[in-house]
Structure formats: C-alpha cells, structure tokens
Request: fold
Amino acid sequence: MALISPQKAIITSIIGALALALIITPACKKEVGENDFSNSTSTPNLSQNYSYGFGNDNLTILGRVLFYDKNLSLNNGISCGSCHKQEFGFGDNQQFSRGLMGKLSSRNTSALLSTSSFFGASVFFWDGRAADLESAAIMPVLNQDEMHAIDVQLLPEKLSKLDYYPQLFQAAFLTPEITVPRIRIALSAFMRAITSSNSRVVGLFVSGQLTYDELQGENIFQGKAKCYSCHKGQDFSTYDGSEFWNIGLEYDYVDKGRYLITGEEKTKGAFKLPHLRNVAQSAPYMHDGRFNTLREVIDHYDHGIINNPQLSYRLRDIPQSVISNLPVGVLPEDADFSMYPPQSLNLTEVEKRQLEAYLRAMSDPVLLNHPKYADPFRR
Ligand code: HEC
Ligand code: HEC
Reply:
C-alpha cells in the first residue's frame, strides 16, 4: 500500500470502479462463443508464489484473482479476463467482445498494458472518457447500459462468502475486510503489473538482437513511414497517454470517438493513441477492430487514408517548410492544413514486409505466456 501515491490511488480507483461497474450486471444467459462463459465454482490455484518486480506482491496476487474471478459478475459468468486475454496481449482476438446478456461491445477490447504510457495515462478507453471520477461513476462503461442499475456496494458481501478471499485481503491489506475501494486498488495493482520488458524491441531507439529485416523495418518506422511521430516512447504510445488522433479511417465517422467527450469539432473521429506492444497478437485492429491483419494496417497508412476535415496533419503531405514557418504560438494541430492531401508513403513490397517484421518483434513472450499473469482458476 505504501507504494501507491494518492494520485495513483485515485486513478486506480477510477479504473476499478469503471471496470467493476461493467461486469456487475444482472445477466443469466450463458453464452456460447469465443469467450469462456462457463460458470466458475473453483478456487484459485495460488500454490506458486510469484514476484511482480515492484509494489506489493500480495496486493497484485489479490488483483489477479479478482481480475479472473467470474464471481465478480452477477451471473458468475464473466470476468475481466474473459475479454482481456493474456494470449492476445490482454486484448481480445474478436472484433467485438461478447459481454453481458450476450451483447457485443461496441468497440474493440483495449490491450491492457501498464507502462509509463498507460498508467501514467491521464485518460482511459478509446475516447478517453475516464478522465474524472464524477463522470466515470455514472458512465455506462464500455457501452453496456445495464450497469447503473447495479449496486456495487453489494459486492464485498458476495465476495466475503468465498472462502479464499479473507485470506487474500488479509495478506494484501493486513486486515481481512473486503471493501469496494480495496477491490479497485487490487484490480489496478494487477493491471499495473502487466508490463512489458522482455521483447527484442526494447524501446524506440534501443533495439537488441533484431534481424536484418526487422532493423530495416525499424528504420522505416522511424523514417519513411513516420510512425514514430505518434507511436513513441517505450511502448510506442504517447508519453502521457493523452493523445487522440483522427487517422482517416472514414470520412464521417460512425463512432465519433473523442468528440463524444469533448464536443469539439476538431476531435471528431479522434481516438486514443494505442500502444503497439504485442500488436502481432492483438488483432483485429483499431477502435472498431476493422483491420484483421498488420498488412491491412500498413496498407491503410501507405495509401488508404481517407481525407476528412479532422485528419491529423501528421498524416498529410505537408512540406516541412510550411510547418516550420507557422506563426509563433500556433501549434500544427491547431492550424488548418485541410488543403493538403493525405500522405502516400509509397512503400515497396519489401519495405512493407520489413515494417511488419519490426512490429512483430515488439511482442513480449513473457507477458504473453508467464503463469504469473495467467488465470489462477484454470486447472
Ligand atoms: C465484455 C468484455 C470486457 C470485459 C468483461 C472487461 N472489459 Fe475492459 N475493455 C473492454 C472494451 C471493449 C474496452 C474498450 C472500450 C472503449 O474504449 O470504449 C475496454 C477497455 C478497458 C480499459 C481501458 C484501457 C485503456 O488503455 O484505455 C481498462 C483499464 C479495462 N478495460 C479494464 C477492465 C477490467 C479491470 C475489467 C474487469 C473488472 C474489464 N476491463 C472487463 C472489454 C471488456
Ligand atoms: C497521427 C498519429 C499516428 C501516426 C503517424 C501513426 N499512427 Fe498508428 N494509430 C494512431 C491512432 C490514433 C490509432 C487508433 C485509431 C483508431 O482506432 O481509430 C492507431 C492505431 C494503430 C494500430 C492498431 C493498434 C491496435 O491496438 O488496434 C497499429 C498497428 C498502428 N497504429 C501502427 C502504425 C504504423 C505502422 C504507423 C506508421 C506507418 C502508424 N501507426 C502511424 C495514430 C497514429
């Protein structure tokens, strides 16, 4: 506990509240589909003690149990891990995930990752709507409308009837009490422990053991294809997790993205900049899971960008001199560049292959496979 700053605690509480609200809902239909919706009656197998490298391991272990515990849902049929799956980089391999009452999520499940660019993040969800507690608490999380009918306060009592929890709460918090804030803090501790530091692509300018093609791909990522102008930092996201861009997927976006939160015209079709760790595993891609393969993504940036008034200036063909000669105080994102066409990268077949190879090298086998992140209820 001592390791959690008040600021982090607030953020973690927000996430926890959101996430909990999502899954606590009256639903009793058992789903068949890609997700495992079988009811859980087992107890977690915690015979192995894992270290998570930082923080309070007991808190993280409790969070892991909560993350995978279907008892957190009213019908005991769904857990966070039902959609955020380890083998897919804590995202899902479906365009939309089947949730409560068999309803599909309206967006692609985010691949959870705790890093500077995620838990340093000031915003969560594709539209960044989890920015303050006030709105978060009443928000129909992940577009599930059932949530606000539910009393989260009933959860501690329910969990206290499961014999494994008092002990786990005792270990994590030094007393066995189960409370909603504790549940949020523990869930967040587990999500914060989902870190990536074992991929061959260490960071933007630090690479280890890349093949020739991957190295060429790295040069393309940073150079000709200009990917790094947005996908930066350790995990190829923004440094503080608060950037939103319209990347020209549609002319008139069906899902208005960030605009739904800000109401500002220029944010129409803008979505949170995702990290690219384990991107090879987390297909399909984009907020609506529209692209099935990395090649489709690369082709989009190469020649598929649709011009629209909100398209990011970074994805337009604008002479550098124009950008450098902007009047003092005018940021490029605020200037009107709509007269410049979308970029054409003109990548060759070989370059596309190399860029894809580099993206694939960003995956972290430890994050994807290590039992310390796995479902402890699975036998
Ligand atoms: C039915 C599938 C489903 C379940 C169950 C689910 N999630 Fe999610 N999660 C999603 C989807 C879809 C999104 C993206 C939604 C959006 O942006 O509008 C998401 C986004 C998130 C995000 C934002 C990540 C980011 O980088 O912005 C967090 C954090 C999160 N979920 C945590 C949880 C936790 C914790 C639980 C369990 C208590 C949980 N989720 C259960 C589908 C699910
Ligand atoms: C203007 C900033 C910007 C640039 C430049 C950019 N991206 Fe993106 N990228 C984004 C945003 C924002 C999204 C999410 C968009 C959405 O879902 O509507 C995204 C999504 C992605 C995704 C899907 C990730 C997921 O989890 O679904 C991949 C892969 C990707 N970008 C790769 C690249 C590559 C490769 C390049 C260079 C060719 C590149 N990006 C250039 C902003 C950018």
Summary: Residues 1-35, 116-120, 132-149 have pLDDT under 50 and may be disordered. Residues 264 and 347 are 34 Å apart (CA to CA). Residues 111, 225-227, 229-231, 245, 247, 249, 271, 273-274, 276, 279, 282, 285-287, 297-298, 301, 312, 314-315 surround heme C (ligand 2) (CB under 6 Å).
